[in-house]
Amino acid sequence: MIDPNRFLDxxxxxxxxxAAGVGKGVVRPAYSEADMAARDWLASRMAEAGLTPRFDAMxxxxxxxxxxxxxxxxxxDSQPQGGWLDGALGVVAALEVARVSTGSGxxxxxxxxxxxxxxRYGVTTGSNVWSGGLFQADxxxxxxxxxxxxxQARQVVxxxxxxxxDPAQFTGFVELHIEQGATLDTAGEQIGVVTxxxxxxxxxxTLTGQQNHAGTTAMALRRDAFQGLVAFSxxxxxxxxxxxxxxxxxxxxxxALSPNASSIVPGQVRFSMxxxxxxxxxxxxxxxxxxxxxxKVAAELDLGVEKGPLLGLEPVAMDVDLCAQLEAGAExxxxxxxxxxxxxxxxDATNVARCMPVAMLFVPSIGGISHAFEENTDExxxxxxxxxxxxxxxx
Length: 395
Prior knowledge:
The protein is about 35% helix and about 25% strand. The protein is an alpha+beta fold.
């Protein structure tokens, strides 16, 4: 029988690995000491639940049931400053469902905590490699913002790593997650059944001008890289207006200015450019506008442009049959307080869809806050999500 208290106790226990900041903040980036300690703890809980723990070379952690099984889970790494539920909820809920199913002789349920979902090395890296979307050698060449290669970082997995886990042994994948938006919280609803996950495009861009003295260099003679970023950002918002929908989003999120000094005209700026939409054609149109705007600004301000590789994932529709099971569970657990909805956030389910049917369900995020120490969800909503997940697993 599902035990909500045991589930909540495990969720709070996992939060202790990397606990930081105000509220229930967590600092547990991929391959950090806290991340690997959390995975070791999860592996021990999987074994206690009757599953066989297995790490792969990337550090993805599986708790395997015998024979063909339904795979449940998410990820347990965090943002550099994150909350206690992002990813962790799906892993711990999966563990509780698998524990009960194994103990009662129910349907076979396996559990996974994917590595580097939060993007230290790109986009949902662990599940991307596992599902065949990215070769291990190519992943190893990726670097984080400090220049550390993934191949170096994953050495902390060490002798934990075993044989690869074959996706063919799983009949499907269901991921429980916090919404990370305000739709459910604003509407007073408990459950969201995801119909589609948006696609994403992400690349790093560098604008290079001329570093110079801030007091003696006339404005008309400056090749100011930061002013290039400012002009690009402001024009982009205007030029995308007739291309996008209210669900389209774009973000300049990480900016590194060089030399970043008050008396020096900035010679270089490196920044991330990310955009998301559920329509592949619209993603391409957004890319074209971004490229055109960047080229025009660079030409006008006499700046050099360097573009990193274009990373991304395609939009993914959820499996109809798995969604029907989630909807039936939602109506049973939260009658009249659930909805179908789009996921604007990226999740491991996007990658896993290459290998098997997938589905997702959401529970509310209080105030729509996520990727922050203040991230939280009412415990009653967490338990509701757990029960819907258990229903989808056949319990």
